[in-house]
Amino acid sequence: MNKIYSFWYQILHPDRHSSAFIWFILLGLVIIVVAIVPEFIQINNVSNVLIQMVPLGLVSLGQGLVILGGGIDLSVGSQISLITLIAANTMTDSPVIIILSLFLCLGAGVVFGTLNGLLVHKMNIPPLIVTLCTSFIFQGLAYTLHKTTGGYIPSSFQMSLTISWGLFSIPFLLFLSFIGIEFYLLYRTRFGRYIYALGGNEEVLANAGVSVGKIKVTTYVIAGLMAAITGLYLAARVKSGGALYGVPFTLNSVTAVVVGGTPLSGGVGGLGGTIAGVAIVSMLNNVLNLISFRFNLQSSFYKEILTGLVLVIAMIFYRKRS
Amino acid sequence: MLECKDITKTFPGVTALSHVSIFFNQAEIHALVGENGAGKSTLIKIIAGKYRPDTGEIYLKGKKVQMTDPRKAIEHGISTVFQEYNLLPHLRVLENIILGNEPIGKRGRIDWKKARAICTQLMDNLQINIDLDRYAGDLGAAEAKMVEILKALVSKAEIIIMDEPTAALPEKEVEALFRLIRNLKASGVTVIYISHRLNEIFSIADRVSVLKDGKMVGTFSVNSINQDELIRLMIGREISSTFSYRQNFQENPVILSLRNIEDQRHLKGISFDLHQGEILAIGGMTGNGQREIIRFLFGSHSISKGEVFYEGKKVSIRSPRDALQLGIGFIPDDRRNEGLAVTQSVRKNIALPSIHLRQTIGFIHHREEKEIVEKMVSTLSILVPMVSTPVQNLSGGNQQRVVIAKWLPLKPKVLLFHEPTLGVDVGAKMGIYQLMRQFADEGVAILIVTSDMIELLRIPDRILVFFEGKITGEFFRQNATEEKIMFAASGQKGA
Predict the structure, then answer these.
(1) Which is nearest to B245 in space by CA: B479, B484, B463, B459?
(2) Are B251 and B431 in contact (CB under 8 A)?
(3) Residues of chain A positioned with their CB less than 8 A from the CB of B100
(4) Which of residues 248-277 of A touch B (CB under 8 A)?
(5) ipTM
(6) What is the pLDDT of residues A154-210, one digit of tens each?
(7) Which of helix, strand or coil describes residue B466?
(8) What CATH number did the domain enclosing B60 receive?
(9) Are A130 and A119 in contact (CB under 8 A)?
(10) For domain A2-321, which CATH number applies: 1.20.1260, 3.30.1240, 1.10.3470, 2.80.20?
């Protein structure tokens, strides 16, 4: 009876709004890949794939909530770039400064998200336009901090975010814990229900006596926060800041969420699908690297073609479903 | 229980309510009637906190209250069941009912067990039974309304405003809803009930208040007034309850003839003829193929078998384009989605289907368009300040006229009306009926699909009754009675 509110039920949604489908696609993809390149399944590579998932995964967790609520955030990419530069320009070897810089970056993410959310809610401008505009602003700010790449990231900070043991690594565990937090928020609290309601029909939510604005703004704030965490992680991984580091994440996060079964109109779908979407989008990258190495191909074009195809196929399926 | 004193509300250019006073007792069903634009919706929006009155006061249980926003009203125990669908189709019934009132357990979790218990108890009290785990989108119209009422009750509503709750309900489901409303009353809830269906008011309400042109005409006990008097108060004039009709239409040539139309599900061998200058109405319980047949004739529903003859020639109507080329126009039931681009101007809406008649290599002849639109506006007497006014600012009756006006420049020979007066008030209804008759007199064949019994009995020359995709009754107006129609609509042939 209450099983429909259980963990696995909510992750897989085995009834109408099934994200089980996308998990099967993922599984199928893994099987095909292992058949072609057996190296894929080696512990080293699996651990790599999992780590490569992390930045996209973190952004997509935020993006997923925004899209589920009927919005979209096209500024996450330039937010990430800007955060990497803020981190790389403020950090020194002193642990105190590192911590202050961490808070500065997270605070910046909250401010960016709040700005987006308030423009969408108070000014009543379509989210697509708002976040497109703010993405230019954030991108411009990033350029003023540093034209290309640079800055300083202390080794201690880098080390702490790149430790790994076999399959597990700090970044992957970080990702898992954020999945846990988001699961709790989305499926256990009122806030989560209201995001679904917001994406389903804003008017209905308002008529239920709920303050729609708070919910809406909060989704953008969470997206900003996740972008900030992603930026910090990227800065640590590459040991620098860069004005273009975040660029691919804007559209890739939207792709991951949509492949995962949350339509751009919001209201249906959820966390489970998004995770599978992230895995598919970031796996294609790794897989094509392996394949091209093996067959001596130029891979980067194929990756984009394949991503496009997967997206189209997923969309055709979701259309039929509804 | 609730008292509104001397409420006035003006919008730029209009006085929506002027010095209206009204009171509602505890545990009464109080109907609110009036034509569209009489101020009913303004009044309930003020009570529900959506609008603030310019002057006047609201007292709740003797205490003066300020309804500053809908949340405040809900806190005061006033909930609204809107006319429009107000559920989230992708969430379950339980989640919909409890939305906004989720019981919180430890660590901020929603306590679903408790939520379920609350809903189950509510349903038990009201003697209704809806599966809480179904998706709201799968519910029937009546069940959906009940879920919306349950939603109101969960937020501890003592006063529930129902805005045309039966507008989208088939006749047989209305009774189930009425049972629920009576149970609500028995449990002490006050119901403010708005409906255009006056006969409903007499079967459910205790008192009825009439609004006209923003003023309160009066409040009456339903026992002290009858339907004709009520209509008179609402529109301030008598309406002749019968319309002229034509007995000799069969002398006119047949324009459209259907033979054994079948589709996969809804239509099971439909054959009939439509004559020039005739008004033919199709009735029956909703969902027995009426919707499909009228959409088929406009090319938006496909069939698997059967033939159509138009002016004696065999034709196939595969798209609305085909239908229009034959001279068939369609006035759909869902005006706002299928009939009009509501945010666009009256002019653009009227000009759209005939735009190809007034262009040279893609450039539109603007002056000609303006003339034609203005001519349509005056022939159909559409009340609109300017032809550039967006259609959404017009009343239901005027919107319906705009939909009709769209087809006229194409000089249609057949006009299909699906629920021609849905959401149109009493006075404007008469206007639409007169227009239909006028077209018919000019030789246009009119086909109506309607679920409104009065409309079915009083408007057409001939009546067909559908049941499970077949025609189970055909009546000429002079010998049609409600009884015979009901008999045919429930599937008994040979009435």
Answers:
(1) B459
(2) no
(3) 205, 208-210
(4) 267-268
(5) 0.80
(6) 888 888 888 888 888 899 999 999 999 999 999 889 999 999 999 988 888 888 888
(7) strand
(8) 3.40.50.300
(9) yes
(10) 1.10.3470
